[in-house]
Amino acid sequence: MNDQPHPSSVVQPTEELLQDESSAATAYHEAGHAVIALSLGRSVEKLSIVRNSIRLGAVQLGKGRNGRKQDYFEIEALILLGGLVSEARYTGEYNWGGAQQDLRALRRLSLARVDTEQKAERLERRLLGKTQHHLDQPGHWEAVESVASELIKSKMMSGRAARHLFDEAMKRFHQ
Ligand SMILES: [Zn+2]
Q: Is 173 within a domain?
């Protein structure tokens, strides 16, 4: 869910370093979506940081939901913001451009709830805070780090593997 096009492929001395940095940031972005989804009872089909012409990486979510009380809107919003927030925690700054697609999807959801752009912005700021708070919950950030480092190594992973790393991180905090 990261749609920032990659810079042109003109060969420059620093290109490889830049790519490494951007793929690590992308891994944190996708891991953020996935961990928030898993923590809110959503399933994840697969994750990828393999670049193509339209996106840097992707998380494919499963359809299943369990009986969480949290409402659908909030779950979707936190998952969408999870990429931006997680990536920012890793790089130290918000990559608004790289999260454009996520933010557009969020705005569509918000505008189904409130009637003006201004109210939507206010709502989204509150949701951004909630997303940060959610990643502060015990085990969540450790799970992001663990999924991201596996993604950096393997470039792709199954939802099952992500679930396993998530469960491991949670176990370390709840035993
Ligand atoms: Zn995204």
A: no
> Is 90 part of any domain?
yes
Tokens of 119: 């109210």
Number of domains in the chain: 1
Please give the distance, rounded to the nearest whole angstrom, from the Cα atom of residue 168 to the centre of ligand 1.
24
Query: How far, in Å, is the centroid of ligand 1 from the Cα of 99?
Result: 5
Q: Is residue 10 part of a domain?
A: no
pTM of the model: 0.83
119 Cα: distance to centroid of ligand 1 (angstroms)? 23
Q: How far is the CA of 150 from the centre of ligand 1 (A)?
A: 18
User: Hey, what's the torsion of the CAs at 82, 86, 91, 96, to 10 degrees?
Assistant: 10
Buried b (16+ CB within 10 A) or exposed e, 32-67: bbbbbbbbbebbbebbbbebeeebbbbbebeeeeee
Residues belonging to the chain? 175
What is the span of the domain harbouring residue 118? 15-168
4 alpha carbon to ligand 1 midpoint, in Å? 9
pLDDT digits (tens, 9 = 90+) for 129-162: 999 999 999 999 999 999 999 999 999 999 999 9
Ligand 1 centroid distance, CA of 83 (Å): 5
Q: For residue 175, report the distance from its CA to the centre of ligand 1, in Å.
A: 32
